[in-house]
Design a protein that fits this description.
- The protein has helices at 3-9, 14-17, 40-44, 143-152, 166-173, 176-179, 207-216, 219-226, 257-267, 271-276; strands at 18-23, 29-33, 74-75, 84-85, 98-108, 111-121, 134-138, 192-193, 284-286, 299-300, 313-315.
- It is an alpha+beta fold.
- The strands form five sheets. A three-stranded antiparallel sheet has the order 5-6-7, with no helix packed on it.
- Strand 1 (18-23) and strand 2 (29-33) form a beta hairpin.
- Helix 7 runs antiparallel to helix 9 (257-267).
- The two termini are 42 Å apart.
- Residues 273-325 have low confidence and may be disordered.
């Protein structure tokens, strides 16, 4: 992978494992791979970075007017074997249940955004014409504006994660008065959000240090307090519902503050201090580093992140360590 594709989508495996492709007639597209790639079919379903669009949407040939987005500009021969000019697409075409009708944009310091995009029912949709005749996708500046519009009836539907806070969702879902007008539905797991410890650099290149950190973080408490219990703690990188991911991983590195303390002491060569601490309540030590990191709580369904800065300190002699926030 080179250039913008590597910078923005370095995780994407399809360009590396695709040997070639061809069309066997009007409705059969054949792709040949050069090696096994487990998530290939899953990556084909993603809306980016590769799309399948109508031939009518291409501005020109793949070199002088490539369909890559305009903002990417021109790739010189240092990134590819030849210069490639990004020209975007000529129009919006598709085979979905709705057809594009119009859009209204707004300009801000951060760029141009769609203020409103209108779709109408596609009567020729292969799955049958949808019941909704006109669909308006509306832009709101803040989450508070979305909530207000939903509750006053000017907005019919809020879709997707991260639009409303967990606190707002919890409030709406548990307010008997609001339940008469607003219903809340939760999908299955779509994505796990995780904290990655870089095992290639100190101090996390030591597995005992990684165990200490993992056992010292009360992820369940995070979910219950900050996410209102709407999410759940997971052990896998990918959701169990994802292809080839229905694997029950063990052992589970659950919250165990006492084990974290013992691991830390053993790492520091202070096993004797554990015994002496039973009679000496004044002996104290730090774990040796501060947990001043952005914690991505391991949760399912949504892309949430939770940041908490806290220096984890252990005082020997206390039967119960500092309570995790």
């Amino acid at each position: 992978l080179e250039g913008q594709l590597k910078t923005k989508h370095g995780w994407y495996g399809i360009p590396l494992v695709t040997e070639d492709w061809s069309c066997n007639g009007d409705f059969e597209f054949v792709i040949r791979t050069n090696t096994k790639h487990g998530p290939y079919l899953q990556e084909l379903t993603f809306i980016r970075p590769i799309r399948m669009i109508s031939p009518n949407a291409f501005v020109g040939d793949s070199k002088t007017a490539n369909s890559c987005q305009l903002a990417w500009g021109t790739f010189d021969d240092k990134e590819f074997n030849e210069e490639v000019v990004c020209a975007g697409i000529a129009g919006i075409y598709g085979t979905g249940p709705f057809s594009y009708e119009s859009r209204e944009t707004i300009s801000t310091e951060d760029g141009e955004y769609d203020k409103e995009v209108v779709f109408v029912a596609n009567g020729n949709y292969w799955g049958g014409a949808p019941a909704i005749q006109r669909l308006v996708v509306q832009y709101y500046e803040t989450s508070a504006e979305v909530k207000t519009a939903l509750l006053n009836g000017s907005l019919d539907l809020v879709w997707g994660s991260g639009v409303l806070s967990d606190a707002d969702i919890y409030e709406i879902e548990n307010d008997n008065a609001l339940q008469k007008d607003v219903q809340v539905f939760h999908s299955g797991d779509l994505q796990n959000v995780i904290l990655i410890l870089n095992s290639g650099q100190a101090p996390f290149d030591d597995i005992e240090v990684r165990k200490t950190v993992i056992h010292s973080i009360n992820k369940v408490a995070f979910v219950q307090k900050e996410l209102k219990g709407l999410q759940q703690v997971v052990d896998n990188i990918f959701p169990l519902e994802a292809p080839f991911c229905n694997v029950d991983l063990t052992p589970r590195w659950d919250y165990d503050f006492q084990k974290a303390v013992l691991l830390s002491l053993q790492k520091c060569g202070m096993e004797e201090a554990v015994a002496s601490s039973q009679t000496n309540n004044n002996l104290a030590m730090g774990l040796g580093w501060g947990l001043g990191i952005g914690l991505l709580v391991m949760i399912s369904l949504a892309t949430f992140f939770y940041k908490r800065t806290r220096k984890l300190e252990v005082e020997l002699g206390l039967q119960k360590g500092a309570e995790a926030l």
